Amino acid sequence: MTGEYSLSDLLERMYQNQLALEAALMELTLLNEKQGFTDAGENVRGALFTIGENAGHIKQGLAKLRSRDL
């Protein structure tokens, strides 16, 4: 399957959604921290760290998958 509905394209879009959600969550976390909710901020930052760690592996996997599509 090629084009915008290929597996690699689907996974790329899911990855982009993950990054967008990560950015939105960080904005909300910063706002909450300004209001004094530091414990919640620390918890969210822990989750965001995991997302960031996994992002590199996902991106590498997508690159390998795309190279097979060509």
Question: What does this molecule look like?
Answer:
By secondary structure, the chain is mainly α. The chain has one domain. Helices cover 86% and strands 0% of the residues. The protein is built from two helices and no strands. The chain starts with 6 loop residues before the first helix and ends with a helix. The model has no long low-confidence stretch (mean pLDDT 87).
Give the SSE string. HH
- SS-based class: mainly alpha
Estimated radius of gyration: 16 Å
Q: What are the low-pLDDT stretches, counting only 5+ consecutive residues below 50?
A: none
Let me know the largest β-sheet: none
Tell me roughly what share of residues is in helical segments: over 70%
Q: Mean pLDDT, as a whole number?
A: 87
Number of helices: 2
Counting DSSP E segments of at least 2 residues, the number of strands comes to 0
> So what's the overall shape?
elongated
**Kindly, what is the distance between the CA atoms of the first and last residues, rounded to a whole number of angstroms?**
11 Å
Q: Strand percentage, roughly?
A: under 5%
Number of domains: 1
